[in-house]
Write a structure and sequence with these properties.
This protein is an alpha/beta fold and 187 residues long. Helix content is 59%, strand content 12%. It has one domain: P-loop containing nucleotide triphosphate hydrolases (Rossmann fold, 3-Layer(aba) Sandwich), CATH 3.40.50.300. The structure holds adenosine-5'-diphosphate.
């Protein structure tokens, strides 16, 4: 079962990805977490990535595509994965589709989280004060929302052609949203 969670920054993909990962027993791979860990470890990858992340821009594909392939090729990912934070643009979607098909697999389901922009900004401001992420400043949040609209949102159409997209309401309690995600994945 290979599932992509799509949604703007603050739409709840991470929280729901964790819940889904434990209920399905498949790992969640979050490129944002991998990149932040690389930054914290002072790794080369992190050094290259940080300035893009701090500006709210996508980390270039030459950095990300290798990372995605490495994560998808790991033994834990063989039975399926929950992709959180990737693919984030058409080139990454092509890479994911190509990698999975080379192993006789495919993207089985895409869950897209629908949350209004006003709510996203409020959540981001709340998160900035609790988590202290360096990319949660008002300017960066605005930029990340713009990047999402321009580069990531078109992927919904890419996967809609294959009839595997469920758009769910991302507002409400964590449990309410989790129930919607579960229904979408079982459909
Ligand atoms: P959010 O979705 O809340 O913005 P993430 O943790 O998914 O948070 O991503 C944080 C930042 O990491 C992004 O703004 C971007 O700079 C970088 N990033 C994460 N995943 C990718 C990706 N697949 N491709 C390019 N950049 C990425």
């Amino acid at each position: 079962m290979n599932i992509i969670l799509l949604g703007a920054p603050g739409s709840g993909k991470g929280t729901q990805g964790e819940i889904l990962s434990s209920s399905l027993g498949v790992p969640r791979i979050a490129t944002g977490d991998v990149l932040r860990a690389a930054v914290a470890a002072g790794a080369r990858l992190g050094e290259k990535a940080q300035r893009f992340m701090d500006r709210g821009e996508l980390v270039p594909d030459d950095v990300i595509l290798g990372l995605i392939r490495e994560k998808l090729a790991s033994p834990e990912a063989a039975k399926g994965v929950i992709m959180d934070g990737f693919p984030r643009n058409p080139a990454q979607a092509t890479a994911v589709d190509g990698f999975l098909s080379s192993r006789g697999a495919r993207v089985d389901q895409v869950v897209s989280f629908d949350v209004s922009e006003g709510e996203l900004v409020l959540r981001a401001i709340g998160r900035a004060s609790t988590e202290g992420r360096s990319d949660d400043t008002p300017d960066t949040i605005r930029k990340r929302l713009e990047v999402y609209r321009e580069q990531t949102q078109p992927l919904i159409e890419h996967y809609q052609k294959r009839n595997i997209v469920s758009i769910i309401d991302g507002t409400g309690t964590i449990d309410e949203v989790a129930k919607r995600v579960e229904d979408a994945v079982q459909s």
